[in-house]
Amino acid sequence: MKLKFILIAVLAISTSLSYAQNSTVASSVKPKAFVALGNWRGVAKVKEGLEIPFNFEIHEKNGKQKLYFRNAEESFEGGLVKQTGDSLFVKLDQFDNELAFAIDGNRLTGTLRKQDKGGKPLTIDAERKNYRFKANKPASADYSGSYDVIFTSPNGKEEKTVGLFKQTGNRLTGTFLRVTGDSRYLEGIVEGNEFQLSSSIGSSPAYYKGTFQADGTLKGEVLSARGSQPFTGNKNKDAALPDPYQLTYLKKGYKTLDFSFPDINGKKISLKDEKYKNKVVILTITGSWCPNCVDEASFMAPWYKKNKNRGVEIIALHYERSTEPEYAKKVMTRFRERFGIEYDQVLAGTADKQAVSESLPALDSFLSFPTTIIIDKQGNVAQIHTGFNGPATGKFYDEFVKEFNTEIDTLLKK
Fold first, then answer.
1. Rg (CA), the chain
2. Residues 223 and 358 in one domain
3. Pairing state of beta strands 194-199 and 344-350?
4. Measured CA angle at 299 (ends 379, 185), to 5 deg
5. Domain range spanning residue 358?
6. Would you give the end-to-end CA distance of the chain in angstroms?
7. Are residues 405 and 349 in the same domain?
8. Per-residue pLDDT at 194
9. Spatial distance between the Cα atoms of 222 and 209, rounded to a whole number of angstroms
10. Reported pTM
11. Strand 38-47 vs strand 268-269: parallel, antiparallel, or unpaired?
């Protein structure tokens, strides 16, 4: 009996020691580090009852992680991802915003806010999901095509636009082309005859919803924190906007523009400078805060690199949210570096249409950021194009590029 008791005691002690050792090993193992890489579905809680979904992905390259917003065919670079403890931060320098997330298991909860913490932040939640909207039933028909669309403001004013849609099964992509520019890449679904579209690139998210009808009409609304705006439309393969070259023009008696604005280092720049004499000069009225200006810079920067030795120059006239020197230099430098801009940038005023009219008094009217003005070799205005048809507009973008190059080629030969 004594021997049996001793063996049982030894076995118990051995088991206890083994458990203690394993417990020590287990407690010394650190929790698995949070990995942000991959596809995410974000939801912006814009206001009570309005949540706008969007997609983003995080990639790692050369030891750095970057966030990219996904909308239809576009992958738009947001900014560098930085993890600090149980928090994740993404600087969205293009719009002077940032995403600030708390890591909650395999979810992210936080806000989209201004980098200076000003204004009202937007609540954002994100999960590891790869869809945007879920369709629970098939589309009733293929509603692809172009539409004449009218948006109606709260005061009853109507705005003519062109709706461009491409559908594959339930998936719907598209954009709305306005006189002032387009709504860039929209992505969503058609479920039955109902559609939803959204988009986000780091500024305020966009959300459109409505219905297509069998007779070729559509009805919907665009929703935001400011409220809703209804729209109606009719399918039309020849849908088009007013001529963008006839909307902005010079006052009677004027042939050119006279200005003197400082660049980011304070040096005054004018069309009268020796650098621009006997050259074709392109003026872009722009701003780092403007999504359509982003598309214009994406075109202009590489175009200038290819054509600058032909006797052509570009001056970007920036109208920013603040003309405070430190702020303006920060956002304009970021804009320059992001797109590889090699042409001149000047600070012309604040981001306001009235400010443009006051700083460029020769203009009879000003409608849109961006606006492109082409000056001939004699220093006279040859052409003014209102707005910018970005790559999301397909054939309209292709037409602009062709017309732009034709005009420059013609002026260089004179």
1. 28
2. no
3. unpaired
4. 135
5. 261-413
6. 117
7. yes
8. 98
9. 7
10. 0.90
11. unpaired
Report d(CA 289, CA 322) in Å as an integer. 11
For residues 49 and 52, give the distance between their C-alpha atoms in angstroms, rounded to a whole number. 10
Residues 42 and 155 placed together within one structural domain of the fold: no
CA dihedral for 251, 256, 260, 262, sign (positive or negative): positive
Kindly provide the residue ranges of all beta strands, DSSP E only, lying in 205-311, ordered along the sequence. Answer: 206-212, 217-224, 227-235, 261-262, 268-269, 280-286
Using 70 as the pLDDT threshold, list the residues of the chain that sit under it: 1-33
Q: Based on the fold, state whether residues 301 and 370 are members of the same structural domain.
A: yes
Q: Which two tokens stand for residue 201?
A: 């690139």
Give CA–CA dist 129/343, Å, rounded. 41
Domain harbouring 64, CATH code: 2.40.128.120
In this prediction, residue 225 carries a pLDDT of 83
Q: Which residues contact 394 (CB under 8 A, 6 or more apart)?
A: 164
Asked if the structure places residue 369 within a domain, the reply is yes
**DSSP secondary-structure letter at 240?**
-
For residues 82 and 84, what is the distance between their CA atoms, to the nearest angstrom? 7
- The span from the CA of 283 to the CA of 261, in Å, is 13
User: 189 burial class (0-12, 13-18, 19+ CB within 10 angstroms)?
Assistant: buried
In a domain, 224, yes or no: yes
pLDDT in the model for residue 88: 96
Domains identified in the chain, total number: 3
Residues 378 and 350 placed together within one structural domain of the fold: yes
User: Rounded to the nearest 5°, which phi and psi values hold at 79?
Assistant: 170, 180
Same domain assignment for residues 276 and 395: yes
Position 32 scores a pLDDT of 55
**What confidence score (pLDDT) does residue 35 get?**
84
**Of the candidates 235, 250, 281, which is a domain's last residue?**
235
Phi, psi of 13, deg, nearest 5 = -65, -40
206-to-134, 183, 244 alpha-carbon distances in Å: 18, 9, 25
* Residue 33 pLDDT: 64
